[in-house]
Amino acid sequence: MNVIFMLASLFCVLFITTHFANKYVLSELRFTYPTIFQGWQTLVGVVMFKALISTGHVENLLQGKEWHDCALWLPGMMSFLISIYSGSRALANLPIPVFFVMQNLTLVFRATYNLVFHRQILSVYSYLMLMLSVSSAVAVAKTDPQYDPDGYFWMCVHVVSLGFFDIYTSVMKGRLKLRATERLFCCYFYSFLVLAPCSYFLGDALEAARFPYLYFTKFYLGCILSGVLGMLLNVCAIRIDELRSVQSLMNVNTIQSVAKILCSCASLSFYDMKMTHSFICFIAINLVCCVGFYESTSHRRTQLLPINYSRRNDDQSSLESSILSVDGSQKLKRHELQQDMIHADLI
Fold first, then answer.
1. Which N-terminal stretch is annotated as signal sequence (predicted)?
2. How far is 78 from 289, CA to CA, in rounded Å?
């Protein structure tokens, strides 16, 4: 339990610092060249994976895997690329709390997946939290005093691609032979291979050469921190998810929702944001309802686990009792047969 708490605290710290570093480079320094920025982050991810493998902190990746195993993950890599590109464009134009509120619309994709594929109907409390999250997100967009159409457009692309990524990951969980770290490495490597040439053909490389902060230390420091912290954040999330699958403890989505609240509150002290009373209320409702939704769904799953185990134990005990009864009847028949044979011999 202490390990989970430490990892959750580390996840929150990495989550806040990663988004602060990305927001600083994208909004404060106005480095709005996502092919270069995201290409740099994915390159850092690939290099750090190689460093972690060499130090023994991560097992060898893609060892003994076939090409068709990676080909099955190709839609996931494509949606990952679209999500990080669109997310970078959206975060450059939207405040951090608004970015998190719109990102919480992926709850609809999760609920739809559970309903269609697992026939899992939401409880009344979970359904109420979902409806409040969706309605408050729409209200935030309507009452935003800094409404930016370009930012909201890329935010819609980010939400759809991120929702498809979550659904495809869940659907292919039993078919993919790749571990979570291998899937993340493939996403990083594929994104870098695509973004590197795109930065030249889309003209971002030529425009970035005239960037006013190109030779400033704060620019390189922000880029390095964004890449390293983002990689560590994803690895920490994978570790929490692995521990949860073994010990059935905290859900990484619940921890991320709490980290969004902390990051949103902290961003108000560092970044300028126009606010109204209704605007702030809708943001608070959305972030709190997201925590309630994930907490209710994870609590419901943990409640179902003892029932399944009890059924399994009952079935096992009934099977053992039936086997014992069969063995006992066979022994009784064998004993009676031996007695008859002895009786025949005596006669």
1. 1-21
2. 30
Q: Is 59 helix (H, G, I), strand (E, B) or coil?
A: coil
Return phi, psi of residue 211, to 5°.
-65, 130
Is 329 within the bounds of a domain?
no
Position 344 in a domain: no
Share of the chain above pLDDT 70, in %: 83
Q: Which residues of 180-194 are buried (b: 16+ CB within 10 A; e: fewer)?
A: bbbbbbbbbbbbbeb
Residue 137 is part of which domain span?
A: 2-301
| Span of 16-25, 244-253, 279-288 with lowest mean pLDDT | 244-253
pLDDT of residue 299: 57
Domain membership of residue 97 (yes or no) is yes
pTM for the full predicted model: 0.82
Q: 302: which 2 tokens?
A: 């943990």
**Domain total in the chain:** 1
pLDDT, one tens digit per residue, over 97-136 is: 999 999 999 999 988 888 888 787 778 888 899 999 999 9
Asked if residue 341 is part of any domain, the answer here is no
Residue with tokens 């902290």: 266
Report residue 276 as tokens. Answer: 């109204």
